[in-house]
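Section 5.1 Outputs to date
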Amino acid sequence: MTTTPSSSLTLGWFSRVHRGQIIAIAVLGLLLGVIGLVFPGATLFTVAILFGSFLVATGIFRIMSAVIADELSTPLRWLSAVLGVLVVIAGIMCIADPFESLVVLAFVIGFGWIMDGVVDFVAGLRSATRPRWFGYVSGIVSIAAGVAMFVLPAAGVAALVLIGSVLLIVVSLTTLLMIPRRARPRTADSRTA
């Protein structure tokens, strides 16, 4: 397949845009990682506000689904509407007291980790993972992390922000270092050599 000059110019433009997007995302990741390390309290506050806003939006969506969805039976409509109202109320409470919502978020994360650990451990027992010991170790670590989130929820969420910030910086730096260099345009002298 031959490429026309216009198609090669288009491909060159796409590769420059793609490269630019990767650089922009990596730089943004570096900035967010540094902000998370320097201002962990403000980062936790922002996470709490976003969590509350997510709950409000989810609740409104459930209420709208109860009103709009034709395929739902009347009991399911009422259930969806009531759940939507409860979720909106929970979201408003999270926004009103952001740091208290972090405790709720820690409990949700802890519960998820415990359930994930149980699944991993059972997978090890049933030989669903290879090697089996990996399922056991993964399950025990996940269950321990979940229990830690229940015992020390505020410290657990703060540790997640710090670890997440460090990982964001590391991933962003490696992304910047791994971006391929731009190809130098070939001159007439380099084509004949």
